[in-house]
Amino acid sequence: MFNFTAIAAIDNQRGLAKEGKIPWFLTKDMKFFRNTTSLLTDQAAALAGKKNVVFMGRKTWDTIPLKFRPLPDRLNVVISSQDAQFDGATTVVPPTAGPSSMDMTACGQVLSICADLPFVDKVFCIGGARLYTEAVQHPACEELILTRIDHNFDCDLFFPEYEHSFKLVQVLQEEQQGHCFRMERWRR
Ligand SMILES: NC(=O)c1ccc[n+]([C@@H]2O[C@H](COP(=O)([O-])OP(=O)(O)OC[C@H]3O[C@@H](n4cnc5c(N)ncnc54)[C@H](OP(=O)(O)O)[C@@H]3O)[C@@H](O)[C@H]2O)c1
């Protein structure tokens, strides 16, 4: 079974979004997100035609502009209770009755689909709040990659508490673009 990484950008209150939108526009972070989620483990993975998986809640999918979705070069997986088609993405419908085990959660369902696909390299949870909340509680979520922005954007949607279950192991990048922000790797 795969482990996975949750990747998010948060403000200094753990804010993720305000009124359904991300209230900052940081091109360096967008590039970082694209590179991190697209980069394969090694050249062997590339030669074998492998791809990374990005999975997300239906509301996060809806916020990606049409011309940018599906996110290129990655298998896009959308979690929804509606058995709907999302153009260029695979839909996962978690069981409606409350999950009885970690395997039955939305994250668990994605991982079991990945286990059946021969071409998957790395797996990323890319939001939103509902999925992150599930992800930080899932034992297979071994890593968080967080862009932490040093500003309070007065958000109304938040990343869950993670500081007690994960520890900071690496600062990957430090940037300034209007605000200071840094990309960090946290491990369980
Ligand atoms: N700052 C960041 O890094 C970042 C990253 C990603 C997203 N965001 C923001 O986060 C916001 C969206 O987050 P959100 O929490 O409102 O929504 P979300 O997690 O993106 O999506 C929630 C939807 O996903 C489906 N879903 C999720 N878990 C499910 C489960 N266990 N069982 C069945 N369905 C499930 C449901 O879709 P149906 O209603 O179709 O059943 C649910 O309504 C957006 O504003 C976005 O901009 C921020």
Compose a concise summary of this entry:
This protein has 188 residues and is α/β, with parallel strands linked by helices. The protein has helices at residues 27-38, 43-47, 58-63, 106-116, 129-137; strands at residues 4-10, 15-17, 51-57, 74-79, 90-92, 120-125, 141-149, 157-158, 167-177, 179-187. The protein contains five helices and ten strands, in the order ββααβαββαβαββββ.
What does this structure look like?
With 188 residues, the protein is an alpha/beta fold. It has one domain (4-187): Dihydrofolate Reductase, subunit A. The chain contains five helices and ten strands; from the N terminus they run E-E-H-H-E-H-E-E-H-E-H-E-E-E-E. It has helices at 27-38, 43-47, 58-63, 106-116, 129-137; strands at residues 4-10, 15-17, 51-57, 74-79, 90-92, 120-125, 141-149, 157-158, 167-177, 179-187. An eight-stranded mixed sheet has the order 5-4-3-6-1-7-10-9, with helices on both faces. The chain has a two-stranded antiparallel ribbon with strand order 2-8. The two termini are 17 Å apart. The structure holds NADP nicotinamide-adenine-dinucleotide phosphate.
